[in-house]
Amino acid sequence: MRGERGAARPGGPRRWEVPARWPAACAARGRARALGPLVLFLGGLLGIAGCRAQSVPLPSRIVDLSPALTADVNVQRLGSQALQFLGSDGRIRSTLIVPSDPAMAFGLQALHLPSHSGTHLDTPARLLRGGDRPADVHLDQLFGPAHLVDLRWHTRHSPIQITDLELARIMADEIVLLLVGYEPPQGDDWPRFAPLSAQASEWLAAKQIRALATDMPALVLYDELDERMRRGQPPESIWAEYLPLFQARIPVIVGLVNLEALARERNIVFAGFPMPLTDADGAPVRAAALVY
Questions:
Q1: How far apart are CA 189 and CA 288, in angstroms?
Q2: CB atoms within 10 A of CB 206
Q3: How many angstroms separate the CA atoms of 220 and 103, rounded?
Q4: DSSP code of residue 222
Q5: Which neighbouring-strand residues pair with 129?
Q6: What's the pLDDT tens digit per position in 171-188?
């Protein structure tokens, strides 16, 4: 399968508008400054965000959306069955770097981890020849206004369809956060969750969203991938849920945690930046939601 790595994105880097309340917060801060330090102090206690000219106010809170990268985070999040299918024990290892003269040790460590550890960016290079790698993805695609779609009501036994997403009124250039309420498997079970259908993936790509991020560990069930491969299906069928997004160069971030903490929020800015690896098909991400 071929991609278009290095091709310019239509329209260049994307821009986004700040929520309507932000200019008001800036104005309130400016009026408070004119009235003196005491009012500024009281304004801070009342939650008026600090705001200089042309700056963005501070969020009311920041929600961490990435699990800690412990040695067994992938085992805990995916279970042994999925990791056996992936051909990895999933463990993250660190090795102390010892120079030729141990007395000159600097306390450095070498880290060994799967590229798809914990919360991670899944890039087109995984499937498309010449596709984007983590270092190729524009950071402005991974930062911006987010639209949380709460799908915890959806059964885990069928894929998410277009009709499930149409109710959310998703707009172009939004970072879409899909919350399915993923729970790690027990014992030797496969991970169970409501996956994304190929049709829903095509619909999201046609919407020209900025990025897709979710608490799913993958867009498709691992046992479904196993079955497709065993049946000898062609790559475009095996990876049908990923290809529309990858071909549209829409970043995909999976493995988020704590999305339920955003269920009642309306003004959310998402940030999820990966390690800028130049020779990998994915990279761990530290993701966060800025709540206003």
A1: 29
A2: 11
A3: 50
A4: H
A5: 2
A6: 999 999 999 999 999 989
